[in-house]
Amino acid sequence: MKKKKLLALALVLSIVCLIVVSLATTKAQNTVDIYAKEISSSTYGFGTSSGHETSPGPTLTFNAGESVTVTLHNEGQMAHNFAIVSSKSDVTSVEWNSQIASSSNPVAAGGSASVTFTVGSAGNYYYVCQVDGHASLGMWGNVKVNAAVPEFPSPILLVFGAATVTGLVAYFARINVRRTLKA
Ligand SMILES: [Cu+2]
């Protein structure tokens, strides 16, 4: 009876641990909305909320290795696109297949389009509009990539691990106490 209870407890705790691990390893999807428009005849910009485009645009911050979906909303009168590049002065230096549309086939005025990509290694990058001349008119912003977040949220696993060990030790201790009293 005691052995069965112990096995049942161990089984339940194992299942709970497995569920926690599987939930914890499901990576969060980071979604970013980017808005683009001409601010004036000589300044074009990007923003992270509708109607709030600036030049340069707001800094985007990601974690290395995370999956990101960026949606570009074109609120301007002209066609624009989006790409993360390693060099602001070279709009063809695209990183991680992060391009939305292209310089020759950009997102039309009023349109929107998305891309999903996996962020590369930590460092400083830029996002730009690749349409001829638009980056130099101000259509760019900084991209900061932080070091990768651990896949397992270790504090949660430690708590469950400790709970499992404590539960098992408590059971064994009770059994031993009873045996000692009987003897
Ligand atoms: Cu543009």
Class based on secondary structure composition and strand pairing: alpha+beta
Bound molecules: copper (II) ion
User: Quick one: CATH class of the largest domain?
Assistant: Mainly Beta
Overall average pLDDT: 88
The CATH superfamily label of the largest domain reads: Cupredoxins -  blue copper proteins
CATH architectural group of the largest domain: Sandwich
Strand neighbour order, sheet with most strands: 3-9-8-5-6
Task: Assign a percent range to the helix content.
Answer: 25-40%
User: How many strands, which pairing sense, and closed or not: the largest β-sheet?
Assistant: 5 strands, mixed
CATH topology of the largest domain: Immunoglobulin-like
Shape field: rod-shaped
Number of contiguous helices = 2
Q: Termini distance?
A: 19 Å
Rg calculated over all Cα atoms: 26 Å
| Topology as a string of helices (H) and strands (E) | HEEEEEEEEEH
β-strand number = 9
- How many domain units? 2
Low-confidence spans: none
Q: Report the sheet-strand fraction.
A: 25-35%
Structure report:
- The structure is a single chain.
- The chain folds into two domains: 2-25 and 151-182; 30-146, Immunoglobulin-like (Sandwich), CATH 2.60.40.420.
- With 183 residues, it is of the alpha+beta class.
- The protein has helices spanning 2-25, 154-182; strands at 30-38, 44-47, 57-63, 67-74, 83-87, 90-94, 112-118, 123-128, 140-146.
- Strand 5 (83-87) and strand 6 form a beta hairpin.
- Strands 3-9-8-5-6 form a five-stranded mixed sheet, with no helix packed on it. It has a four-stranded mixed sheet with strand order 2-1-4-7, with no helix packed on it.
- It binds copper (II) ion.
- Copper (II) ion is lined by residues 44, 80, 129, 131, 134, 139.
- Copper (II) ion binds at residues 44, 80, 129, 131, 134, 139.
